[in-house]
Amino acid sequence: MNILITAAGSYGDIAPYTGLGARLRAAGHQVALATHDDFAPVVRAAGLDFRSLPADPRAAHPADRDRAGTPTDRRALIRRAAAFVEQLGTGLADAVSPDTELLLLSTTTAPLGWHLAEALDIPSVGAYLQPTAPTRAFSPVVGGGRSLGSWGNRAAGRLSLRVADRLHTGAARALRTRLGLPPATPGAVRRRVEAANWPVLHGFSELLVPRPADWRPGLDITGYWWPHLAPDAQLPPALEDFLASGPPPVSVGFGSMTADDAERLSALAVRALRRAGLRGVLLSGNAALTTADSPSEDILTVSAPVPHALLFPRVAAAVHHCGAGTSAAALRAGIPSVPVPFTADQPFWAARLASLGAATPALSFPTLTKLPLDDAVARLATALTEATTAPSLRTHARSAARHLATEDGPTPVLNALTRLPH
Predict the structure, then answer these.
(1) Is the pTM of this model over 0.85?
(2) pLDDT at 80 exceeding the cut of 80
(3) To the nearest whole number, what is the mean pLDDT of the chain?
């Protein structure tokens, strides 16, 4: 089968599809992954065909271009999402080749991918990294991670879908016009898809998100799709040397998140590690973490991307933003997390890690930035001490790792493909 996977967003929104795609390819399918140009090397390294999507998830709305960091307030987040969606529709249409037989649509691309599937009359399946269907079990993943009660959770979930419909209105209208489809609102198309029990496969573990009892048929949880890792992949020599030179350090990194004040965030990380008496690895990332102003033999800055699958098993704990992929990688490695969620679905995953007993209570990034630096350092240092000394955190994290080792997320996807109409 000729399969096109479409995925848009940051690295964590793309990487799991390289592992899933590689498994589909090993099973005999032809697989292409349509995503942003920055990720072409990781797509091709997994043996997949690359298709370009022009949309830039980091592009700021004009109203926010004077802000350097990742937006953390809801309005700025919605403005950025709207600007992103406007670019995405045309790119998706261009990425579909005439011989495509199946669309695997990510959370971010599905609302536009539905129109493509309709116009081309080919099957599509959701391949989601976050739960989006309304449920009484929890509030929307972008709702901050706090339960609103069973009625409130489901009502908020429905409202969240209506907000997404509004975001897609302009892009959907333009895409349907280009495809020669009759007018239809995003909400009408979504409801039609849901009424048909459109299949959605969720690439996370029921350990973290048990399948809600009130989900409709067709919504399934498969287990994680781990990013593709080359068999000969290695850590950089300088990092290997550092890891071998002393006790396991703490990893500190925030992935694709950016900060208004990288210097302050770096100082916060370095000072907290020193106060806790810990060695540290700073994963520079988009947050530009560095020890340049305070070099130390006990803290190493790593500028190049490092696979979590290689690094996390070698560290004592990880301070991270709680993206879905990073949260999963910490659990897979059996290490405690210190969650510092920035925005979007990150508070949700932070709460899930804490509920498993594998993480300290979340230290919200917006809260830390508002505190005086000394107070923020004290809070982070306290969390670091707890993460590296509390036996229960290590025990629960290792238990989670053993559970995840029994799961095989791509296999249910392969099985689902055999049930599709041909």
Answers:
(1) yes
(2) no
(3) 92
State the CB neighbour count (10 A cutoff) for residue 75: 11
Contact 339, 362 (CB under 8 A): yes
Residue 156 host element (H or E): helix 149-167
- Per-residue pLDDT at 270 exceeds 70: yes
Residue 22: left (phi > 0), alpha (psi -120 to 50), or beta? alpha
The residues near 44 (Cβ < 8 Å, ≥ 6 apart) are: 50
SS (H, E, C) 195-255: HCCCCEEECCCCCCCCCCCCCCCCEEECCCCCCCCCCCCCCCHHHHHHHHCCCCCEEEECC
Q: Which structural domains are found in the chain, ordered by start?
A: 2-224+408-418 (3.40.50.2000), 237-404 (3.40.50.2000)
Instruction: Report the amino acid identity of residue 298.
Output: D
Q: Closest by alpha carbon to 382, among 303, 273, 225? A: 273
Do 317 and 341 form a contact (C-beta atoms < 8 A)? no
The encoded tokens of residue 123 equal 């099957």
Give the count of beta carbons closer than 10 Å to the beta carbon of residue 114.
24
